[in-house]
Amino acid sequence: MATLGQQAVGTTVKIQLGGALKDFIIVHQGYPSSLYDSSCNGTWVLQKEIPRKYKWYNDNNDHYNTYPGSYMDTYANNEYFNSIEADIRNRIKQVKIPYTLYGYRDPSTGANGHPVKVFPLSAWEIGATGDFRSKVDGSRLAYFDATNEASSKRVATYNGSAAAWWTRSPTNGSFDYVVSVNADGSLDAYERHTSPNGGYRFAFILPSDLYLDSGGHVITNTPPVISGSDGALGTFGDTPPSYQYTVTDAQGGAVSVSERVDSTTIRTYQPSLGAQNTASIPVNTWKSLANGSHSLVITATDPAGASVTRTMTFTKNATAPAITGTDTNLGSFAETAPSYQYTVTDAQGGTVTVTETLDGAVRRTYAVTLGQANTLTFPAEEWRTILNGTHTIRVQAVDPLGLTTVRTVTFTKNVTSLAFEQTAAMNADAMPDRCIVNIQGEFPAGSSLTVEICNNGNDESPAWEDITQNVLNGQRYFFTNQAKTAASWGVRLRASLSRGTASGPCYIASLGGNFQ
Known about the structure:
The chain has four domains: 4-212, no CATH class; 225-316, Immunoglobulin-like; 322-413, Immunoglobulin-like, CATH 2.60.40; 417-515, no CATH class. It has five helices and 40 strands. A five-stranded antiparallel beta sheet has the order 1-2-3-14-7. A five-stranded mixed beta sheet has the order 18-24-23-20-21, with no helix packed on it. Strands 26-32-31-28-29 form a five-stranded mixed beta sheet, with no helix packed on it. β10 (165-170) and β11 (177-181) form a beta hairpin. The termini are far apart.
């Protein structure tokens, strides 16, 4: 149901007069102009028919054609006013309307207007234009057309037939004539005391937030209703709480709902009355909340401004994941790479993402199994690429809210020598007698490099020959061995490198060659 202020200009509403329902037209909404006192801000209604015919003013006296104190004014605010149904009567606004003293004075406007509750409209309020003969004692109301000619919107009936009716506007330069409306809706002027056939047609202003039913009764507005009752939702960690509710309103108007967490509004919307709604706290809002007590507040407000609030409290207790152990140094390692074992737990039990890095480079990112031991290891191929020196392992665990725990451990790699040997010989159809071998790497002063080769690599005890200088100098080498015990000839390589007193990079990157 809409309030009077929400109904369109031109809408007809029912109001009881003397116990009978009568039609009233909404002719304006709000404050017409600065010619009026602020009390005139409301819903203007005008009776559709003419309830009485009588003279505007009867006697030749000092009032002449001045509306205040006229017969029409007296009847409007006594007999007519008292005939209005009590609930409506008690809500009619006391206002100050513009009026003109005789036809010669300037209009009294604003706070100087005539104080009344019921009144006839002025010529200018019903659409008089500049060429008509009356002072500007009002502003055109939204319902009426701006014309002095016939207008259907000004036509009113008396006992079922169109009839003329009075305005409250005296004509210019006259003590005796008053602007009136002819039966066809055109504007005219009748003599105030010799024209008994003028109709009394009255308007009044009601509060815009008033509700009226089809029987003309005032409906007392009640605030909307939010289902449930205030209470506590509990304690929550990674996942925020939500709350389901419905909103109803006895008047059935458009209800506005606001949801907020503490002082932060998370949603404002117009619900479907009676339908289930869910207040959900956005993830970013939840992340921003500190641990502790908070409130989810839902406010429903109807068109008349009546509101109701539902308050649900909750506690946030979100803690970061835990990684076993403490930050530490794993020690020094050479041939055998270090390993690090850890276990991740989370009080809220949500999905925790772990990222392992070595010296800032990501090695692995995965969803960890809470409570299960995990081991960070270095495969042999990776270990060989890690240079000597101090290195940092970082294990980072992040929960769904972004709460983070980091475990940092360090170790030192200190490899001073290396050796490798080709395990399978490169078979030859005949005895190899020469070869050329090349090596890539760094062999600084103070280090010791040895490169050896054999041509009877299939033997149980091959004859190894030192070719270090030939390799370093890029020279061909001629085998000295000419004997074998195995069934076939085969070439094998081996090398060793010792750091000794050298500093800086010291390594073998590659070793290869050919033979014949």
